[in-house]
Amino acid sequence: MRGWIAGLIFLLLVIAAATPAAATRDLAPASSAASGLSVTNDQNALSTRIGERFSFTSTVRNDSRMDRPGVVAHLDVVTLDPDVYVDPEDWSSQRTEFLGTVPAAGLTRIDWKVQAVNSGDFVLFVSLTTLEGTDRVTTSSALRVTIASQQTLNAGGILPLVLGLPAGLLALMLGAAVHRRRRLHQVR
Prior knowledge:
Number of strands: 9
């Protein structure tokens, strides 16, 4: 009987020892080394003002020995302020780039053009996946962007209209009044 119990305990210990390793392996995030793809940005921080445009370049590298077909890069914008709403489509109309095949040991560069829509602190990053829709996603490090608010008297170029329209109406009214007075003096 003791041999049977000892065998069962031994079997349970072997299963318990193997289970955490298997669970850890299954739950571990996919690494960029496994896919062979990596993405880096040419900047890690920048400052600008609201409404200004800025750009940065991402480099997609394929460090594997095989071509990687159907590579897709996607730009995302995240706010660091819970009270600020971010609609990434307002920041850039072209946020997804279909790169096609990235050759073995090759690289591809992407120039991103972005407009600062909100003021505050933001993080931009680029994620890579493939058209196969695999569960492996590779992400760049963060590009931290600080955007200052811009208080302007001439927001959107409206100041000439705001001042010009009333001034034009006033000039027309004065011209009409002068014309009317002249006619009245001529009639007398």
